[in-house]
Design brief:
With 301 residues, the chain is of the alpha+beta class. It has helices at residues 20-28, 30-36, 130-133, 136-152, 169-177, 179-182, 266-275, 278-296, and strands spanning 2-3, 7-16, 43-49, 56-62, 68-79, 83-91, 97-110, 113-124, 158-165, 192-198, 205-211, 217-228, 232-237, 242-251, 254-262. The longest helix is centred in the C-terminal third of the chain and has 19 residues, at 278-296.
Length: 301
């Protein structure tokens, strides 16, 4: 990764459990782009795509605050299903150019999986856009996770909660994987936890009991599937059963944290949401983490 005040280049490689013809289509067909383009918390209100050399690409991302962020682009190379190059401009809501960018994507298939390597270059066109360069890696990484959600069919059976935390990913990752630290923030408001075992490695187990404000105890068991310090945790929660995916992306010296809980079906997701208030509980849990990060942050001189 290289960066300067007004230019930045990033590279991300990610594998998807899908044939590369389908993954290539997801990068070029408007109906697919509308379902995954953009980081967590964004939607696509307009998608138009003409995937041929010289063809136009137009996307409008809408943030949670309702602000539209248009992108206009041109396909420079289209070699299905192996390679794609797009040059684009990100615009402010009033049409002012903010960033000029170029992204190159290669697609390699092996045993039914597709490895995507994305190289993105961007230049800030005015001082207001310089800060956007700091969010490039987190934005693309979260977008690719949204693509994974679409390809795996998990969009309608998951909960997604995000936070921007004022600490480096290494620090936040440690707060998430230390029994001493998680005891201070894990769980909704009014809950405390006791950890019996925490072995943070693939195949390792975290066994803990949540103590509710009403005096009821809730035993929990998590088995770690992937541990990639300081960027990613994947685990399986045993009861209720779901897969947890937590990503810790660096963003301008902070951490763009995203937590997914993926259930076997939409019905199971809805059940835990209604019966156990899973969405509210997860939101409160990350609020407590944010408060702890803030409390541990150095006080400005």
């Amino acid at each position: 990764m290289t960066e300067s005040t007004t230019r930045r280049t990033i590279e991300i490689t990610r594998a998807f459990d899908a044939p590369r013809e389908l993954v290539f289509e997801a990068f070029t067909e408007a109906e697919h782009l509308a379902r995954w383009w953009g980081p967590d918390g964004f939607s696509v209100s307009l998608a138009e795509s003409d995937p041929r050399v010289g063809g136009a690409l137009k996307l409008v991302m809408r943030g949670g605050d309702g602000i539209d962020l248009p992108l206009t682009g041109v396909y420079r190379e289209v070699d299905p299903p192996e390679r794609l190059v797009v040059e684009s401009s990100a615009l402010a809501e009033d049409g002012r150019p903010l960033l000029s960018s170029r992204h190159m994507v290669t697609f390699a298939e092996s045993k039914g999986r597709t490895e995507v390597t994305l190289v993105a270059e961007a230049t800030a066109l005015n001082p207001d856009a310089v800060a956007m360069l700091g969010g490039m890696y987190a934005g693309w990484n979260q977008s690719l996770q949204c693509l994974d959600d679409m390809l795996s069919g998990s969009v309608d059976r998951q909960l997604v909660i995000s936070r921007l935390l004022v600490a480096q990913p290494e620090r936040v990752f440690d707060l998430w994987t230390s029994p001493e630290h998680v005891s201070r923030w894990w769980g909704p408001l009014g809950f405390s936890i006791t950890t019996a075992e925490m072995d943070v490695r693939p195949g390792g187990t975290w066994r803990f009991t949540m103590h509710g404000p009403d005096g009821v105890d809730y035993p929990n068991t998590i088995v770690y599937d992937a541990v990639e310090r300081p960027s990613r945790l994947v685990y399986t929660h045993q009861e209720p059963r779901f897969q947890g995916i937590v990503t810790f992306d660096e963003m301008m010296g902070m951490t763009a944290l995203s937590m997914r809980q993926v259930f076997a079906s939409t019905a199971e997701r809805d059940l835990v949401t209604e019966k156990f208030h899973a969405q509210q509980g997860a939101e409160q849990t990350l609020d407590r983490l944010a408060e702890m990060v803030q409390a541990l942050s150095p006080t400005p001189a």
